[in-house]
Fold these 3 entries.
Entry 1:
Amino acid sequence: MAIDAGAAALGLVSKMPSGPGVIAEEMIARIVAQVPPGVATFLLTSELDAPAIIAQQKRTGVNTLQIVDRLEPGAHREIRAALPGVALVQVIHVRGPEANEEARDVAPHVDALLLDSGNPGIPVKELGGTGRTHDWSISRQIREAVPVPVFLAGGLTAANVPEAIRQVEPFGVDLCSGVRSGGRLDAGKLAAFFRAVSMAGRAETKPAIL
């Protein structure tokens, strides 16, 4: 359904402490095997150490790792050495201006950043799918400061994505809860979201969609 709507990438959610969309690794591997060329497969992983993340990629076969929590120094380098053909996308949860420093520190070690609205600092971590927006002015600052592409996530819907694109001008946008109903993808919401994206921003702005 997502590919038919025009998605440039699929976000496949492995085990998480909270949030929607989690599926078993066996199902992720089955989906990856059927995705046509040209559509990226993002594994959303909450694992915190490099060996566990490397093992997940090998079990699922995805071409991109979306790391939703903060890793120890050196972990990105270890993952890249073990998986040279796999792209690394680090999620930064924008809770305040301190996200700028975190983004600048990690950007040299990854292929892209994804700015989301989770909260890793609470007892049951929120690492995505919150349905909340964050301060897009901070996201704009990060986008202008880092040398890698930036995806924007966090509470995006057909109603607010044009303004989000105008303010941040991201490389792409990532969505989950904004196109779901009753725990499943909603074809009507997907279509509305893609229409909003197609009309948003400058003519040359063509964000990819997760």
Entry 2:
Amino acid sequence: MDIDNDRIRDRLRYIREQVGVLEPLAGDDAARSARLQDPLSFSGIVQHLQTSVEAMIDIAFHLCAKLYAREPQSAAHAFELLAERGDLPREFLPTAIAMVRFRNLVVHGYLSTSSDEVERIVIDRLPDFIAWEGIVKEIAHRQGGHAKE
């Protein structure tokens, strides 16, 4: 089975767009602080992060289905399968799992999401989304695809 490069390309584009909206906040302490204190802006930031992780999960599920003919049991399991099979660098696995956990907390409302945690993600973790894009493009390239723009 071949991976659907258009599907992957669309999801990667979506992630890039969402991260692009958040990147200016990473280096602007005053703007970030104001946005995190405003409930509507805070919700928007969380939504951008959540849906970006969901796009990552969608890609991970698609890759597992197409490359291994196997449906993962969970979002975390999808990334674990990719790492087990050598397609996801082992050092990225804890990052991917943390992203899935954040998404689960937000979506399922297990605990409220603190502005401190969201701020830390905006300041320190946005590059992880770009790293994922590079990983996915490498997987697609190895499979004879081209998830590039």
Entry 3:
Amino acid sequence: MPATKQVLPTYQDLEEIIISEHMIKRRVKKLGEEISAAYPEEEITVVAIVNGALLFAADLLREIRRPIRLDCIRVSSYRNDTRSLGRPEIVHSLTIDITNRHVLLIDDILDTGKTLSVVVNLIQKLNPASVRTCVLLDKKGRREVAFEADFVGFPIPDQFVVGYGLDFAERYRNLPSIGVLKPHLQNPPEWA
């Protein structure tokens, strides 16, 4: 007897799409140009905050016209909730030396500012030549820590969004656009 296939959450779980796949592609290309211009001669050490920034970082790296070294850092702040749960924890740190290197930190979303603040402080203690930040989304309405990114893809309102790397309980990352998750689905899921 064949196994029953599980239906994966898709667009029907979204209240609305706020940033289309086409808009993302166009803005990522422009961000690549802006970043390339900001580092006219330097090699860039890119540090992506995973899992959220994985898709964004992969696409953005293809648009940056400079030599790049890549590392990832893993930070936990949401778990299975729609709100940040206090101080972010660094779960897995850097593996390459960033001393005297120009570091570009990439994240999916800047909301409370806590995650980027913690990671930037960690990076600065490792004596880089410079540190800049790039985020796909900037949700200023949720800021709790004074922090501004150097490069921003899109400002967004204070809504819980998923898609293009952003998740809820590790779901929806594979959607190619970004949308608002329906309110009734913003509770810890049965399938978590």
